[in-house]
TrEMBL record:
Keywords: Coiled coil, Signal
Protein name listed in UniProt: Subtilase-type serine protease
Organism, scientific name: Roseimaritima ulvae
Lineage top rank: taxon: Bacteria
Cleavable signal peptide: 1-22
Taxonomic classification: Bacteria, Pseudomonadati, Planctomycetota, Planctomycetia, Pirellulales
Coiled-coil ranges per UniProt: 693-720
Amino acid sequence: MRMQTVLAVLTWAAITAAPALAQVPVTQMTAISRQAGQAGTSLELRLETGQFLTEVDRLVFSHPLIQASVLHAPALPFDIHPPMDQGRFSVTIDAAVPPGIYEAWAVGAYGVSNPLPFLVSDAPVVAVGNQHAAADQAVELVPGQWVQARCQAEQVHHYKLDLQAGQHLHVHSLAQTLDSRALLQLRLFSPDGACVLDAVPIDGADPRCDYASEVEGTYVLQVSDFLFRGGSPYTYLLSATVTPEATPPARPALLETLAQLRRFGQPGKPLPAELPQPQGVAAASLPTLPEGLKPLVHDEQATPDTQPLPIPLPGLVQGKFLTDRIDEDAFRFQASQGARIAIEVISQRLGQATDPMILVFDSPAESSEKSPKLLAQNDDLPAVGTAAVRSVPRDSGVLFTAPHDGEFVVRVRDQFNARPADAPVQYLLSVAPATPGFELFAYVPHGSNNDAQSQPTGLGLSPGGTTAIEVFAVRQQGFNGPIDVAIKNLPTGVVCQGGRIAASQNRTTLLLSADINTIRTLHTLQIEGAAADLPAPGNVKRAYAATIASAAHGHRNVVGHRLTSALMLDILDHPMWPTDISVSAAAEGMRMARGGKLRLPVQVTRDEEAPQPVIFRGRNLPANTSLPDFTLAADQAAGHVEFRIAPKAATGTFDFWIQAETTLTYPGNQQRKQLASDYLQRLRRIQELDPQREGLKAAIDKAAERLKQVQEQTKPLKRKVFLPLESFRVEIVEAPFETTLGELPPVTAGESSELKLKLSLARQFGFAGPVTVELLNPPAGITAPKTTLPAEQQETVVPLSVAAEAAAGELTLQLKLQYDFGGVQTVQRTAKLTVAK
């Protein structure tokens, strides 16, 4: 029997929203057979591992001239139409596609998958098998071409090439850059069998080899996963270059790296393969450098650390740390008293093997002490993101307020002293007047109640369904204002109310709902944030797209992520479940004082044959608020969740949303079962017409056995799901009443012994308790007794006495009101009193 389930979330000011079906599992792609190809060639590509890869019949790339078509399997016996071999594609790379790293998405019955990187090269790409685990099976490593292979568990791959004495070998590897789980280790052996180079991954960056050969002969390169793991998700690429002298392949300077990163996401714009691995979202959460500012190049040899290099304000320095010790460079600049100066180092976030630290000192000439006074310092910038998409930058930044006019010294110290001599160690130092701002990042969250358990996921929105997109802000240089977030290019039939990142928050969730009559569309979303507190043009920012690249696992207990070129949404044209789950909620009218509670009724309509409990929980709750998980038992139809506001919660307008966790029955791949059944029926019809046809009975028996296997493989499965129900915008106000103070007439000190200050309360939110009023830090000569406004009363009078010693002029009276609303709280109100002598 078909089960119909209705989930409803209603506020006290109930406004019914459109029904929404349960969101289904979405396509997940974790490994493909080929992740590189040469421009101007074609190749076969197979989807190998992932989840919900059912009926994947499209593969799309971030460059329009990379095209994929699904391949067909051989026709079955007595069938004239070869079936599509879903998950197997022919990929054609046009010769005009520039070299670089692009992305591929799989599209199937459950929507569009997460993206996987795909390298396009102007050199040949050779895929090798796993028959080179011994030295005598070493594969020839041909300079100038790419090799694709996969790490094997407990095995080491061997490659060989001949070098002349004095030649320089440069080996470039890609693994983590491809969302591979492989942590590559490269070991180079000389002709006599000695290990002459051992390169290991450093902080998410794939290793490189740069070696000057000392003797002529055959060298062997060993490649393995550092932890000796292997399998389909452990893909890697290798490229070798041999030069007659020490001329390593050029790596872009950091300004060019930054420019390339900011272009990433524009149509057809790849990331260069030689780009140092940017450190996730932190790589884009960089300060906006002054327009047209050219960097001052710091020469380590020409500028001793004892003579700080003068830099203008604003100023930009391009430098390079020494690799053999903890290095420190010094600079000096002029600033006026009270000026807010943002000092920031950009290095590790753009893939450099560094750990910068900033120290700001008074100039020796300005300091009266023997040693210059330390005014500010910072080791690491704050972590950015969420538990699912999170970066912990090792770069450093200081927001510095000049204590006086004069000169100040900045020292930039690199604390990383364990790295190869050829490791990238460039840095940019920006010293400029503070410019508050922000960057936004958006990603598709994995359906779960724990961000730390996230894994790669795509985005599919079924008719009548709801799905979520997480957006978080990286605030820069003191900015703490609200940010309103919206999707600027919603496809037809999809609605999203937008979200707000409040002043005390760094994230919001956008809930997208689809009309019941949607048309199948693959759409690239554009998300923007606007901050009313900032001046144009920096008040509006387009969100960078991010993607979850890997789940946490035993050897790496953090979720992997990276930037992606696009946030793709697949609007489906058919419901994915035989269950209809409806959601209705009040999206307006949420207003409560600190210390109060909001009760949100919930209702579930179930099929009696398959009752399941439903857990309701709050997500992205404002600080100092809570919404305890509420379980509606399988035999219950109604209840309520309670949104609680602590007395110390901040006031303002905030967004949060409610998630439901339950178990639904997943119907399996009905199309696959139908195809197998239809084929068997066609064979039986042929048998009715020609029962003696040769080979027909064997084909029927085989088709019947295949149908049984398919039926077993496509049996309905119960699956735990996490459903985004509704988002809410709540206004938190200071007190459960509004206060009105009467006006006080002017008085002459000593002539009027007593005044009466009228205080009126407009009670709200059900508050009826007493309120005590007392004068706080009264001016000299002004006194007032503590007064209590009894429970349920609206007005009282506060008597004031003005003695002869009271000061003349307009005085400000501070009144403290104390009450109990979810805990004892106080608020302050002010009144004005004019006193004459």
